[in-house]
Structures are given as C-alpha cells and as structure tokens.
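User: Sequence in, structure out. Go.
Assistant: Echoing your sequence, followed by the structure tokens.
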Amino acid sequence: MENKRSKRRTTLQLGFLAFLIIGTVLIIKHQRNMPYQHNRGQIFGTFYNITYQSDNDLQKEIEAELMKVDNTLSMFNEESIIAKVNRNEKVELNDMFIQVFELAQKISGETEGAFDITVAPLVNAWGFGFKTGSHPLKSTIDSLKSSIGYQKISLLGRTIKKQDKETMLDCSAIAKGYGSDVVAAFLKKRGIENFMVEIGGEIVTLGISEKRVPWRIGVTKPTEDSLNVNNELQTVLNVTNKAMATSGNYRNFYYKGGKKYAHTIDPKTGYPVQHSLLSATVLADNCATADAYATSFMVMGIQKAKSVLERHPELMAYFIYSDEKGELAVWYSPSMKGKILE
C-alpha cells in the first residue's frame, strides 16, 4: 500500500515537473517570438525614439506619461508648472517638479554651481552672440548674473521661493533625462524586460535589443558640423541596464588664441568656458542624474570633473577633448573600460 502511494506521489511530481518544463519552454518561445515595438515622435522641443519588446503598441500610454513631464517642466508649454513659476504665478508644485528640483539642487551643490537651472538667460544672451559674432556687453552679463544662482531659489512647502522675482528656472539640462526615466519606469511597471528609451539623445536601456545582444549606443565624434550631417562615431558603448547622457554642443566651436572651445557658459562667471573638453558622456543608474552631470562636466572641464568622479564612483564618464596639438583625445573613467565595445 505504501509502495503504491510512493509511486503515485512520484508520478504526480514528475507530471508537475514536466508541466513546469513545458510551461517554461512555451514562455521562452513566446518571449523570443514577441515583437519589438518602435515608437517615434516629438516632445520637449526634441524627438523621442523608444524600442521595446511587447505584443502591444503602447505609444498612446507612453505619450500620456511624457505629457505629464511636459505639463510640469517644459519651457515650450506656456501652461506648464515651470512656466507659471517663471511668471511668478501662484502654483502648487507636483511630485515630479519637486523630485527634479531637489535632484537639480543636490547636483548643483555637488558641482559647486557648475550645474544651475537658473542659467538660461545667460545661455540665451550668448547664443545669439555666437551666431552673429557680436558678444553681449559686460553690463548685460552683470545685470543677468544678479538674478542667476541656484542658491537664490528654494522649496517652501509645495511652492518655489525666489530671492529675486527675475530669476527664471529652466530644467532643459535635466528634463529629457528625467523624461526617459519616467518612460522606463512605465515600461517596467508593464512587465517589459527589454527596451531602449531615447529622448533628445538621453537614453535608458534594459535587457537586450532586437538582435538579442546588449544595447550598443554610439558616441558621436566632435567634428565641425553645424548642419549636423556628419555622424561619425568616436566609440560604441554597451549601455545595457544603464542610463546614458551626452553633453557638448561641439558641432559649433568658437576660437580663441588658435584653439577651439565648445559653446558652454559658466554660470558663475557669466562667460563661455575656456577649457579643452568638447564632449562629456556619463553613465549612471538613472538618466536625470546622467543628464545633469554631463552638463556639469562640460562647464567644469576635465580636471574638476575627475575630482567629482572620485567622489562618485557610481558614475562613469567618457570625455573627448582637444589636446595641446589641437587633436581629438579621449579620457574615460576606469570603470568605463568594460563598456567600450569599439
């Protein structure tokens, strides 16, 4: 009797094991055959490209998530929270705004003000000057600087407190990265295990690509290319399960003393930086952080950026700069070595 029970128990166990094996094989087969969706569009004044493995096209839901960020942080949306803050209107901040603001202020402190979401008026003033060849007057720069500085803004409950009503906030150097994080979180919530989210060059990846290999992302070589037609790559990185951001408007240089410099404005001086860094690529656990630090490093230059990286081993960086002979050269953090594919 006991022998029959034992045989029956063994048969049931073998049957259950077979069921598990068959079920697992079917799930893996389904996953391998599951298509990759490709969504493209415009947001935040730039373009997005999102690839993810799913039976369903989720573009409408993804765009709904992006519109939440747009309605919070977009300078192109006159009804966004940040636009109302800039007009000094009474507006209650939402969780998105507070999260981005606190991260921005933290990174501003970590970089001694190299990252500053109040710097836009200076950037705009110099932007026109670079195109026309006429630079803003010192009096103009001094006037703008009086209302610029991340220390001049703070949170008061769910509102922004300004020391100067003329201070303007612009989160464009962190919003695209944050938007990529928001979409990535949405896809994870839907159980999607393989995706690549890219908004204006700021990227978050998970799992594998359509080709069943890690996500490979190119870093563009900084060459003089104002029309943006030359996309020659400096290197290709394995960015799987990471976020990546690149900063450096290196397609347009300005020259001084025979050397070229990227059009990056130092928030503290009010003038363009004069160092050799032309492109900064940062890998981090989230794209908002990568985005902000990439911008910071373009302001700080290589030596100061290295000091920040020593304090933040969780960050990886890949720098392209102009050496003493004016040739392109590369420096990257030791932890980045395993990510470089070619």
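User: And one key feature?
Assistant: The mean pLDDT is 86.
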